[in-house]
DNA sequence: GCACGGTTCCAACAAAAGTTAAGGACGCGG
DNA sequence: CCGCGTCCTTAACTTTTGTTGGAACCGTGC
């Protein structure tokens, strides 16, 4: 993948979430990025580690998670190309959770040093990245609501719609279906339910003709019912830079 | 309350979470703050509103929450003096959740304008506030884990210990008991359970001789059992500035 | 082609949590 | 001091979710 294309994903994302000036784009494009390939289901940074780089997803899906002493795992967020899931490590030096790949992924690493230098030089770029971490935070808030207050079928629908809207933002929503490359085990970990119950919920949504989930691909059968179930309010994604 | 004392709470907090230089302290102390009193159970900023100020808690307890279309409410975080719960509104201009008081509270408002000016001038101060929002984010992650993976009694214990440790940080842990001024209804909203079930859980912990909860005050009966139940790992609070 | 591991799927039973309803404690204002 | 409202408390019953265990499916490597 050419170097330009790698940066394009990042720029595209920042353009969506912030009002970015042309000269700032040039600054961001000048950031040195070292690219590496990761297989599926692989840790990128682990809980307790001290990070020295931030990780830009060039291609593939990632997830952040925490594992308890008793082995139970909670998925905190899903991540798609153009995002920097561990931007927070810039100032929270030791990781408090894991970042790992869901699918085979192409990741670009940007050193903390380079990032710190850049935004000491350019407060506008700093604010842009700051805003990015704040949107991340807003998504966690919604995730709390999802896990805490919605019944399991609604939780699943909500996570699906959030993912779909984010894929749409980066122009990766080709057809009426979209990718959600999680096993049922992982879906359970995301929703705070067991894999068995995740299976039940998926079956139920299929039987009710709302949505079909097959080998990591979501096909919506009844858009109206789907939205009604998910109770999705996109404001928390803070898509409009001016708002 | 004298103006100095108001700022002291904030400085104290920033000192704990970041390595702050003396000249930066002076900058922060120079911030204009307008103080107002709020009764208990009152909205400070509401979901959907556009904020123009950030709110420093001088005295009292606050909580952030989101309310769903069906009326269900999820509490996202609890806040104590010295914190700025809506710092995020600086760059996420329209609120995606509510901020309200739990007890009567003294709040200091700092205009976005003043804050923006300050950290354009001083990147170090900006980084300090940025870090503050990142810790906020880390606490949301742990809250997700709590609601998603722990059984209800452990959830309650975890929230209690988190609160206790934070009160300790700001030097407000007088004795063996501490304040947690939530009704059982609100405890339910924080843990993602109903008020009835919250009551059951509280009773259970009392009967097992682990912890007592009485009119907003927590008394630990068996510290060992309490900690074991809560499964509390303080790393996510990122207390040490150097880490 | 076949064995293998990881998923998916499912059913029966157990446990946790939600719902409804109602009585009691407590503080506040008249 | 009484009445009222809020919170706390509890019980009985229902629903959701977890647990256990097992069968079917599917792609991969041999």
Automatic annotation (TrEMBL), chains A, B:
It holds the Pfam family HTH_Crp_2. One of its GO terms (cellular component) is cytosol. SUPFAM superfamilies: cAMP-binding domain-like (SSF51206), Winged helix' DNA-binding domain (SSF46785). InterPro entries: cNMP-bd_dom, cNMP-bd_dom_sf, Env_Response_Regulators, HTH_CRP, RmlC-like_jellyroll, WH-like_DNA-bd_sf, WH_DNA-bd_sf. Residues 150-224 form the HTH crp-type domain. Keywords: DNA-binding, Transcription, Transcription regulation. GO terms for molecular function: DNA binding; DNA-binding transcription factor activity. CDD domains: CAP_ED. It comes from the Bacteria. This is Crp/Fnr family transcriptional regulator. It comes from Bradyrhizobium manausense. The lineage of its organism: Bacteria, Pseudomonadati, Pseudomonadota, Alphaproteobacteria, Hyphomicrobiales.
């Amino acid at each position: 993948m050419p170097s330009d294309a790698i940066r394009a994903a990042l720029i595209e994302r920042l353009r969506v979430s912030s009002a970015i000036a042309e000269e700032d784009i040039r600054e961001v494009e000048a950031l040195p990025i070292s690219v590496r390939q990761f297989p599926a289901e692989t840790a990128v940074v682990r809980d307790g580690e001290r990070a020295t780089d931030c990780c830009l997803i060039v291609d593939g899906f990632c997830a952040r998670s925490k594992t308890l002493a008793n082995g139970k795992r909670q998925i905190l967020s899903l991540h798609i190309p153009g995002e920097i899931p561990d931007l927070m490590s810039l100032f929270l030096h030791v990781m408090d959770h894991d970042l790992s790949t869901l699918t085979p992924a192409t990741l670009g690493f940007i050193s903390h040093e380079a990032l710190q230098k850049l935004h000491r030089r350019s407060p506008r770029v700093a604010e842009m990245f700051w805003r990015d971490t704040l949107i991340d935070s807003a998504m966690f808030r919604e995730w709390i609501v999802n896990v805490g207050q919605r019944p399991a079928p609604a939780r699943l629908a909500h996570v699906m719609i959030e993912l779909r809207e984010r894929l749409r933002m980066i122009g990766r929503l080709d057809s009426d279906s979209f990718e959600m490359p999680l096993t049922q085990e992982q879906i359970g970990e995301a929703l705070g339910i067991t894999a068995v119950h995740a299976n039940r919920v998926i079956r139920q949504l299929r039987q009710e003709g709302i949505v079909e989930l097959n080998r990591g691909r979501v096909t919506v059968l009844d858009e109206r019912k789907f939205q009604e179930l998910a109770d999705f309010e996109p404001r928390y994604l803070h898509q409009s830079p001016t708002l």
